[in-house]
Amino acid sequence: MYTKKNIIIGILALSVQGAFAQFKTNIPLDKNVTTGKLKNGLTYYILHNEEPKDRASFYFVQNVGAILEDDNQNGLAHFLEHMAFNGTEHFKGKGIIKMLEKNGVSFGKDINAYTAQDETVYNISTVPVSNQKLIDSTLWVLHDWSGSLSLTDAEIDAERGVIREEWRTRRTSGFRLKMQTDPVLYKGSKYSKRDVIGDLNIINNFKYPELRNYYKKWYRPDLQAVIIVGDIDVKAMEQKVKAIFSGIPLAKKAAARTYTEIPKHDELYFGTASDKEASSTSITLQYVLDEPLLKDSIVTRKNVMNSFYTSILNNRFRELILKNQGSALNLKTYFEPVSRLNTSFNISALAKKGKTIQAFEDAYTEAERLKRFGAAQAELDRTKKIFISSYDDFISNKDKVDNDSWADKLTNYFLKAKPFLSPEDDYKLTVGIIKSITLEELNAYAKTIQKPANQVVLVTGSDQDKNDFPNKEAVVNVMKKVESMTLEPYTKKENNSPLIEKELKPAAIKKTFDVAGIKNAKGYILENDAKIIVLPTTYSKDQITFSAFSKGGKSLVKTEDLASAEIVTTLARSSGLGNFDNIGLKEKLTGKVAQAAPFIGENTQGFQGSSNKADFETMLQLLYLSFEAPRFDPNIFSILKEQYKNNLENIKQDNGNTFKDTIELANSNYNPRTFIFNEKFLETIDLKKAENIYRDRIKNAADFTFIFVGNIPDSALELIQKYIGNIKSNPALKENYVDHNIEPKKGKTEVHFTRPMEVAKTTVYLNLTGTIEYSKENALSMYVIGEILSKRFLQTIREEEGGSYGVNVGGNLEIIPKPTFSLALTFDCNPDKEEKLMQIVWKELNDLKSNPVNANDLEDIKKALLKNREESLKTNSFWNNTLYNNSLNQIPFLQDEEYKNLISKINQKTIQQFSKHVLDSSSSVEVIMSPESKSGK
């Protein structure tokens, strides 16, 4: 399904990457945005928006990033971003985070930042607006970020360790490949030397004044913007902004903010990169393009045509892949920003084993065919229909665009002059352009996209495949060969059959029922015993969410057939439905906003889906066909098998995959039902078995519960009776899941192993698990324990020890197949610190049962829970998930007062008692992966 967000990115974002000070737009800013520039040069944008209600998001945008660092400052822009949370004029130490978390605004989830080559952006999101003191304090946080960071010696030194561990964590295979290809793509440009996180030698050794000087030079109001979007009084907020930010001084001799270019080149640049953990081989041709200086409606029109072009070519690529007659596992084309001043048009092929140059020829041939002969009228019509449908859906739900989405767009307006229009004006401009584009115009434009200059070809893959990489001469020869070969225009037959040919009549309703605790939800039992729950809401003006379930899942599949069960829903979803294969179904659904995707989980099977009001019937038709007329295309099966085989060749070298498999096996006590992606999996998967598993699991409407939440159309019930009521059923057959006792062995399991690594890194996983009675209190207490530990590890392991970039912790209580708790954590660290950090981990765990938790931390977590629930209550997804879980597990819904009362009962004593029970009754699984050699960085 296409979404408005995807289309918008495709249309407006493609050619809008220039800095606002250098690039301009003559498309007026949405009049609902209050904007201004203070005397010190600081720009502000304020917009009233009520999604979510009673919340606001605050963004602080700095038009400076890593590209402005000198060579001896490599990494300081990112370092400064970290320091923004380590003490300011008005918030000492960790005062910013403490102040915000007291009000339920959580670090990581609501408070965050990022540094890129050309910008640094901070955000404080979903701030409750009813607390004026909190609003004022949040504005003062942004004020201090502008020019009042403390940057104390002690805090700088403490953060060096955190950055070191972030550096270690981010040195993935993909990152290492990029470090090899950037010098080719950015040849002669500073971008080739700026990976944002920086040079570790500089991080470890820079002198304190160097960071402070960089801060004073570049963090200044003329390069900054304050963006506030939310359920606020705009005029009052503007006065606050003026009062708080006008006093920030502007340096008299401000350094010029320059923009780095990528040098032009007539020669085709060629580069290869390999890594032992790379899972596949790809070849990408990039055409580096300049951004237009003026972002006007002409540029918007070109962006629409760019989106049309890539959409049509990608559809052709998809058809080629599904024929399974070429040399590629995947083909794609896209535009992407490569610098503030440049975008690139890319043609990329993921190659079958040993067929890289042939895969490139497949891709280049289709691009040449489209360039030479253009698109067909049917392709253009279909593309227009998709895009207009997406904009129709957007305009219907414009009130549900959240604060952060608008703030992101305003960030792009400030940094890149990307037009920011009201939803109505955006719709009018873009849909008007879409409707007016002719086939002749599009085809003429398509001939101009691939230009002879500024071409770059990059080949990446695993070390073991690099001998099969083509060289530059081979690539150039293929391009010349394709450009001179005889080609036929693209042709395609249309399938104009209806989705469902069979005449269906609505089935009767046998009885109705109420849903406990949710008075507006109505239940129906149809003639075929299908159970229906419908909850009408007005949270979104044109959105319906759908889910369905029945019990059983893979627990009812024989152990020897589990490999086939793993692939079956992917196979079915990729094969089409009824009389339509994959491509035919996609074309049939052109312009429709509807989906219904099957799943087969460990203990349940069912569907997830959504639609708008107009296409509710289409969603039901897809559901009906998924039961009554699924397809299992042998060609799709062959493609999947080849993809798996290709991945399997290289995945053995992937340390992350090895770590994951080791965890799975330890957590299951090496149960034979544990899924591991290996040669045995490839040998065992079988098309017929997969089909039989699907037909055995996705059957019998009488054993399913179907849930619909949203702006339900008046005709909904009759349509449900028509389609769900005609799914075959056997009321006498009621299935349940089987508990195969997939759990760790009792006591302590330790698996420590080593792997060869490019960068020395130890990765730790610890899971405490056991059985416990399920209750809402216990489920919340498990969650709270996880959050308490997150806060503690942030303080002890990250901040005090500089031992890890972060410890991920989660406390969870599952009901199916039996009530089981899990308290799991994972982190990366320096191998030399592993022993000490594990001592800290166990100390913090044992402290939970021997000492009361920090009262302030507990209160912050409880406030965040209440705040998150208040926000969730206004979404269709919350209610669908609630009805799903309540129906599956027979858990009553808690009203607001009941929930608040439950939260209020959680205190230091209850958490200590619960922690003692969990820790004393648990079995543990400890998996630690370390490097074979600790030498290195």
The major beta sheet can be summarized as:
7 strands, mixed
Strand order of the largest sheet: 14-15-16-20-17-19-18
Mean pLDDT: 95
Give the radius of gyration: 29 Å
Strand content: 15-25%
Counting helices, strands and paired strands, the structural category is: alpha+beta
Q: What general form does the structure show? A: globular
N- to C-terminal distance? 45 Å
Separate helix tally: 30
In total, how many beta strands? Answer: 25
Give unreliable regions as ranges.
Answer: 1-21
The portion of residues assigned to helices is: 40-55%
Write structural notes for this entry:
With 937 residues, this protein is α+β, with helices and mostly antiparallel strands. The longest helix is centred in the first third of the chain and has 27 residues, at 297-323. It has 30 helices and 25 strands.
